[in-house]
Amino acid sequence: MAYLELLGGFVPLLVDSESLVRGSVAAARRMGISPLVIGITLVGFGTSTPELVTSLEAAFVGSPGIAIGNVVGSNIANILLILGLAAVIAPIACSPQSIRRDGGMVLAAAVACVAVCLMGWIDRVEGVIFVVALVAYVLWTYRQERASHDPSTEMHRAEADLVEPEPRNLTLALLLAFAGISATILGAKWLVDGSITIATELGVSDTVIGLTVVAVGTSLPELVTAVVAAMRRQSAIALGNVLGSNIYNVLAILGVTAPVHPLEVPPAILERDVWVMLAVTVLLLVFATRGRRICRVEGTIFLLSYGAYMAALFALGR
């Protein structure tokens, strides 16, 4: 039963988060919002919605291992699994401007995550600081890109264009977005409940389930976006989507969850996983700046590293 509940959570998170993105993008277009703003905000935040609702649900039911593990595990999966797969399909071009700004922000968010985890709790104050930092970053990005036409600007516009055709009617678009978020919330509840049950049955901690099954499940929208972009030879979009998602995961998800329900950091995440997240973030930036692309060999290294990380988690079981 728990496995059916888990599967029942994955399907809405994938299908209805896409509906949320499509509906939100459609409504924004009908209201005259520029593709640049849509790419910077709605696409990146929309694909992170499963992580947000899942972490909130986990926090409410008293499972910080899933709430925090979902964020940390998703950031690790975004880099090693999703970018690794995208790079194997097609090498990923890396704009120096995007790496300096967005890559730098991803690194800053990872460092901030490690810093707050070292305190043992992610409290309301840290959450508010994260949200303020995210708003400042989005405003800074928009002002910078509105005044320029560098590759990162075009990438964000292309992110909006990558979204499939949507309802032209504003009311239908808003209904689609509302239906998407409603079903995503329901899927998150099933996912969290099923994950806790499975962790008990397998004799592993909910932290391990949060870092693995839940993290991969909530990263499915990013995975679909990256694969589609790579197959269309628009691999820069895959990189931009992952960088944006990793920023949103830390600043938005932990930033929103902590003020609602402060989170105690599980010892295993503090001792191991936040450092893995920081290490793979640094590795990504090294690969991206060396040769200005992530090649198939480096993508394969990412995938093999992710496999080794998954195996180590289940071997340790905590």
SS elements, strand count: 4
Strands side by side in the biggest sheet: 1-4
Query: What do we call the CATH homologous superfamily?
Result: NCX, central ion-binding region
CATH architectural designation: Up-down Bundle
CATH fold-level name: A middle domain of Talin 1
Give a nutshell description of this structure.
Residues 2-9 have low confidence and may be disordered. Helices cover 84% and strands 3% of the residues. With 318 residues, the chain is mostly helical.
Please tag this protein with its features:
single chain, 318 residues, mainly alpha, A middle domain of Talin 1, two-stranded antiparallel ribbon, 13 helices, 4 strands, 84% helix, globular
List the helices and strands and how they pair.
Layout: H1 2-30, H2 35-47, H3 49-60, H4 64-89, E1 92-93, H5 96-118, E2 121-122, H6 124-146, H7 151-162, H8 170-202, H9 206-218, H10 220-231, H11 235-260, E3 263-264, H12 267-289, E4 293-294, H13 296-316
Antiparallel strand pairs: 1-4, 2-3
Helix pairs in contact: 1-2, 1-8, 2-6, 2-7, 2-11, 3-4, 3-8, 3-11, 4-9, 4-10, 4-11, 4-12, 4-13, 5-11, 5-12, 6-11, 7-11, 8-9, 10-11
